[in-house]
Specification:
Helix content is 86%, strand content 0%. By secondary structure, the chain is mainly alpha-helical.
């Protein structure tokens, strides 16, 4: 395989990785800063975050549907078509984000019945509301992000995300502990910091696009008459299965989080540490997958079969190298990583055991998401959703319960179930990409 494909994948992926990993760093900062308040506040952030993420990924998945469509039409030089999909995606995603906030609000009365410690529920309330509301500006930001990434610019979203992350962490420092005259809000302060920083993100994107002629021209094509139900249906046809796939995967992790809560506050806090690190490494592979979506969509748009294959497989190989390095890090430095989040010896001990299991499935995680990214570049999203349902709903969750409770392996046993689901998904996603790429 020509090294140029690796270089193109890495050049496209690096800003996406930094953008996605940057968002993960904020979650990590939330966990580290809140973790200093004790195990219960850390568990509250974990519990609220698990619920919100399961709903939020519906919106993220829907927004991703714009990327391969914009990419394929951009590669053909059909810029008005790109603009029309962009305009309709803005409408669809904004309305959908309001719906998601309504769903999260409706869930609030159900949280006391989810088997979590009462102290965790009470601490999570306001944090949950702030972060839920932040989904609306975040979805508008993602629409701009997926549009620009579809036409090959991955850097602007990176710059805005990193700047927003700095703001978020600074606000965390001021609001969680009441520094420099700000109120001491504890867990609530972390939620408010997230909301403020996410409002800034789409505002910054609008300002940047309006300042550059090559991007402003897409806005000039906007018009009332260009709202199109067929285009909105096409965005939903591609985006909603992505949402479904993501929801199923996050549901399996959230089910494991809830089962961790059955084992106690320390187990839930350790799970939050593990999930934070999983999310960080996953975002790196997800960035590579995003590059695969972009480059495969461009090659598919001009019917370049060889380009489709080589960009797809280059992404998978790069991901294997990165996730293998992450696995080694978890094995060698698991205790030191856990100690960054908490000084509680019980939480640290549980975290170390979980990290050993995580190290085993990092390779599968990297393979499944990059293969999935390549499939999205081909606008193939429905069949991968079915594979995800089987892998995460009918493999991960039952095996997690079996290993964790029936076999008595505790927290590492719960995480082992997720490893089985990732293995199953990675095998079938790769087989699917091999078959479809041969038909270009």
């Amino acid at each position: 395989m020509s090294p140029n494909y690796y270089k193109q994948n890495l050049a496209t992926a690096t800003p996406v990785i930094l953008s996605l990993a940057g968002q993960s760093v904020v979650q990590m900062a939330d966990s580290i800063m809140v973790g200093q308040l004790g195990a219960a506040p850390l568990a509250a952030v974990s519990f609220a975050g698990a619920i919100i993420m399961n709903v939020m990924v519906l919106g993220i998945g829907l927004s991703i549907g714009l990327t391969p469509l914009a990419g394929q039409y951009w590669a053909r030089g059909e810029y008005r078509k790109v603009s029309q999909y962009f305009q309709n995606s803005l409408l669809v995603n904004t309305l959908f984000s309001v719906l998601l906030f309504g769903i999260l609000t409706a869930i609030i009365p159900l949280t006391p019945f989810m088997g979590q410690p009462s102290e965790v529920i009470s601490l999570a309330d306001n944090y949950y509301i702030y972060v839920s509301l932040s989904i609306i500006p975040l979805m508008i930001f993602f629409t701009f992000k997926q549009f620009l990434e579809g036409i090959g610019n991955t850097k602007i979203a990176m710059y805005i995300t990193l700047a927003s992350n700095v703001l978020n962490i600074a606000l965390n420092y001021l609001l969680i502990n009441g520094k420099m005259g700000f109120p001491n809000m504890g867990v609530d302060g972390a939620g408010l910091a997230t909301l403020i920083s996410r409002i800034i993100m789409p505002v910054a994107f609008i300002a940047v696009i309006n300042s550059r002629d090559r991007y402003r021209r897409f806005l000039k094509f906007f018009g009332k008459e260009r709202f199109s139900v067929p285009h909105q249906r096409e965005l939903a046809r591609i985006g909603l299965p992505i949402s479904g796939q993501m929801v199923i995967e996050f549901f399996s992790l959230s089910a494991i989080t809830i089962m961790m809560g059955w084992m106690g506050t320390a187990s839930l806090a350790a799970n939050q540490i593990a999930q934070t690190m999983i999310n960080f490494t996953f975002m790196i592979s997800n960035g590579i997958a995003g590059a695969s979506t972009i480059l495969v969509s461009h090659a598919c748009g001009i019917r370049d079969r060889e380009g489709v294959k080589r960009h797809g497989y280059a992404g998978m190989k790069i991901s294997l190298i990165i996730m293998g390095s992450a696995a080694l890090m978890f094995i060698l430095f698991g205790r030191e990583i856990a100690s960054l989040f908490t000084s509680d010896p019980e939480v640290i001990s549980i975290s170390v055991g979980i990290f050993f299991v995580i190290a085993l499935f990092e390779l599968f995680d990297g393979l499944q998401i990059t293969a999935l990214g390549a499939l999205r570049g081909l606008t193939d999203t429905r069949r991968p959703m079915i594979i995800a349902i089987i892998s995460y709903l009918f493999v991960s969750v039952p095996v997690a319960y079996l290993f964790g409770f029936i076999f008595g392996l505790g927290e590492p046993g719960l995480m082992t179930g997720f490893a089985f689901g990732l293995l199953n998904a990675s095998i079938f996603f790769i087989i699917r990409f091999r078959r479809l790429s041969a038909k270009i």
